[in-house]
Amino acid sequence: MSSSTTTVTAEAMSPRKQPRTTRTSAVLVPLLLLIGALTYSTWLLEAFLPTGLSPLRSYVSELAGEDQPYGTFFRTADLLGGLFVLLGAVAALVWLERRVLTVAGWAGLVLFGAATVADSRLPLSCAPTADAGCAARERAGDIPWTHAAHAFSSSLAVAGALIGMVLLTVAARRGTAAWPLLARTGPVLVVIELAATGWTLASVAAFDAGHGTWGLGIAQRFQLLSIAVWIALLAWSVRRR
Known about the structure:
By secondary structure, the chain is mostly helical. The protein has helices at 3-13, 20-40, 71-95, 100-121, 132-140, 145-174, 180-208, 216-240.
């Protein structure tokens, strides 16, 4: 091979010769996802704030309730967290390689982000696990429509997260997407998420039936934390790729 051919080949393989969209996506997609994961985890600050709610039995959504002292702060954090994940997933659909599994997985994260944004705009009007009167009004249906709609948007958010977690982890495991870190750690987080979701659903049913909370707060916090950690690992995997 001549020296001129070698030079051309080396230049073609140089990162400086990558398309601008490839370089942009390699930074923008993981950055948006990572910021989204961190902002979505702002509820962890309850450990340092006098919220008056028990992490063992309360919904995380109660932190953002309209009658809560830090409600505006947590609603804003939810809004930003959902928005950043939504933008990151849309950017991935536009710029990253499209396969059936990855497209469906990113679409799940789009749903998660959009539903989380809706969640922040549909806050609980009161804290049912801490206020017996609120719980009674909730069971009687004597609550604002936004309070009732919150349960629906929260369910959509969890469904979207599960779709994204399962499908993108499967894509990593199969080699459809070259994300070795997600391939190794993703299955563990998916199992934790599924277990925490099942525990949360059972706890909600028990609370609605008047049988206590069954560790509702712990279950939901495991659920949300596993989502955030998984999104952060996805961001790191995309950046490494």
